[in-house]
Specification:
231 residues, Jelly Rolls, 4-stranded antiparallel sheet
Amino acid sequence: MSRTFTLIGTSNVLTATYYPPIELNPNYEYAVGLIGLHTYNTIPNIYEGQNKFYYGNESVTIPTGAYEVTDIEDFLQQSIAKNKDGVISLKPNNSTQKCEISSKFTIDFTKADSIGRMLGFSSKVLAPNEAHESDLPVQIIKVVTIRVECNITAAAFYGAHLSHTLYEFAPSVEPGYSINIEPRNIIYLPISTTHIDKITLRLIDQDGDPVNFRGETIVIRLELKKYGARF
């Protein structure tokens, strides 16, 4: 016996309620596995609260989105040029995983909402007309892995702690491209109930923080299987 469930949503939490509840045979064991996940990679690495670039006595707000270092440089060059005849250079160093920046203006990375930490700079003010290398690695990638947690599963560990993690993957496509996960070898985890009235799925990152898909539709398919008699 197997059943499939399709959950659809536009946030990191997908929920389906079943009435009447699905009653499973208490004489058997059941397990659930993820058989499909489909959405688009719209996960931002710059968002409100850490999207300001302070230079001179002014600032630029970078719109929420997914950026490479070169994209940030292009945006800053265009934005600063609109206000003043200013120049800025921002380059990634792929060998050291750091960033190199220079500008004719003073750059202030001390503000709480500055993009400085993402670019690898600790809280400091950079002098104008000098080349500066970040003292920390660039943190351009915010989401390393995505975990799908399911409220009815059991027997999973994340680190040393029990969790409801049903599936985990690393996004492998560029921003704007479709994410299509259909595991060849499905991992089924035992479920903790014989009475299913609600299934809730949460998509979180490696730190346990919600993954922001910015309203993109997410479709997740699950398969429930009966796999053995209880003793």
